[in-house]
Amino acid sequence: MNIVLIGYRGTGKSTVARILGQRLDRTVISTDAEIVKETGQSIPLIVEQFGWDHFRGLETQMCQKVAGRDNLIIDTGGGLILKEENVRILKKNGKIFWLTAEVSTIASRISGDTQRPSLSGTKSFVEEIEEILEIRRPHYQAAADHVIPT
Fold it and tell me: How far apart are CA 124 and CA 128, in angstroms?
């Protein structure tokens, strides 16, 4: 059984994954890092060249690759839950934990991170977080087996 971490960017998925991996002696897989490794391109570059839909397709392929393995800690990209197929794939052999945080906490954690492309392209930083969270919240809620505030 895998432990799958979902949540908006900056909610602590990578940090929690690393700690769990060490304490439980499990392999940690970051879907975003694996996509970067396989494509040889950064996420901002993939999105710029091919668009978000293409990137979401790469996420689905990565879900299919990792879901067949066992005893992993899977650190997912923040938007992976937008495709129900991804959630179905990961739930077959995993429990999903939704990491949450206040907007102000998220903003302070991710400000200045150039590896996180804008999701809206037109809003202020905080407005974008609020808007995207509003869209994603029902998806996170539907996917989560457990909710953990960070």
Answer: 6
| Amino acid letter, 84 | E
b vs e for 50-81, b when ≥16 Cβ sit within 10 Å of the residue's Cβ? eeeeebbebbeebbeebbeeeebbbbbbbbbb
Q: Name the domain count of the chain.
A: 1
Buried b (16+ CB within 10 A) or exposed e, 97-134: bbbbbeeeebbebbeeeeebbebeeeeeeeebbeebbe
Say which CATH number the domain at 96 has: 3.40.50.300
Specify the residue for token string 């800690």.
Answer: 73
Q: What is the pLDDT of residues 7-47, one digit of tens each?
A: 999 999 999 999 999 999 999 999 999 999 999 999 989 99
Domain limits for position 140: 2-149
